[in-house]
């Protein structure tokens, strides 16, 4: 047992979990700052953006696109409904999220916030490095999700 403990040299900077979590916290702060002018969190703004893009979209599809649990999407939708930024339409067992005039009026502001967010880190990595990072992240996510099934 002691030998096993020695093999695990817990260096935080060399740990994928720690590095990813740290980066997520930093990106989260940058995103919060970028979207603060919209009055919405980045996740709420991105949900609204997707609804506005489609005009109407199944709530389940939003959850899949944003990689969020149904209960989280339900809470986000309730908040956006309270602000009259989206409305729900039931069609059989499916719930569709639809745009509202007020929600559509925020689209330019959301896009501006998105662009401001991208400017914060655009010049740190090259385009090729950014693409490679995204490809590696997606590969890792996909493989981990397949292991869970």
User: Strand portion, in percent?
Assistant: 5-15%
Major beta sheet, specifics? Answer: 3 strands, antiparallel
What's the mean pLDDT score?
A: 89
Shape: globular
| Overall helicity | 55-70%
Count helical runs.
8
Structural class: mainly alpha
> What is the CATH topology of the domain at 40-115?
Arc Repressor Mutant, subunit A
CATH-scheme architecture of the domain at 40-115 = Orthogonal Bundle
Radius of gyration in whole Å, from Cα?
19 Å
Q: How far apart are the termini?
A: 31 Å
SSE run: HHHEHHEEHHH
Strand order of the largest sheet: 1-3-2
The CATH superfamily of the domain at 40-115 is Winged helix-like DNA-binding domain superfamily/Winged helix DNA-binding domain
CATH class of the domain at 40-115: Mainly Alpha
Total number of β-strand segments? 3
Identify low-pLDDT runs: none
Domain HTH marR-type: 13-142
InterPro entries: HTH_MarR-typ (IPR000835), WH-like_DNA-bd_sf (IPR036388), WH_DNA-bd_sf (IPR036390)
Pfam family, one: MarR
Protein name: MarR family transcriptional regulator
